[in-house]
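Exercise 7.
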Amino acid sequence: MPLLANSPSRANYLAINALGNMAATSSVIGTIPAIADSEAATTCVLTATQVASLREKIRQVRAKRLRHVALRGCKIGAWSEVLAYYKPFFGCTSISAPQNRDTYGVMPFEVNDDLTAWTSRWERGHRDNPHTMRYASEQVVVATAGGAWEEHSYDVNAVATSESNKSTWLSTYLGIAPSSNVKYHGQFLTYPVSDCPRIIFIGAPQYRSGITVVS
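Solution. The predicted structure, written as tokens, is:
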């Protein structure tokens, strides 16, 4: 994420640490001095004026005393020690981020009482890293194709044996009412193990276990 529009600088942990250290702080190893605007500008590839402007916005955010900040950038939560840099930056009580690739989009969702035939047609028509997951209790199949490492787009479709099963699945895994094109959010597993979903939707029990929280 750029620190400023049309800027080459990015909100990596080094920049976040430099911008956030606006005052001296105490630690077990002694007092950590503040980082001046000019010094932070070098780290962030910005001007001192731009740093001063950003720091004023940081102060405004910190004044809100946020209880929690939920980051949804891909795999940030896989490195809790890096995620810890972002907590004082926002001045929040806790912060969280996903351990897997964050994903969202629109998923066509149809009704067909023959899931086996539907799945077979999907796999024949999508030979690029195809994956199908059958949710047995709701009689639903979610199929994806593509999404290999560093490939950030993929095809996804879902099918249920009845409108009732579709409604139950959507309520359970996404907390929404039925529609033909479903807006979803979840974590994407590049190489899921057998009988494991490729997309862990927000209502799935595994979703929370894939979120790192730093308090």
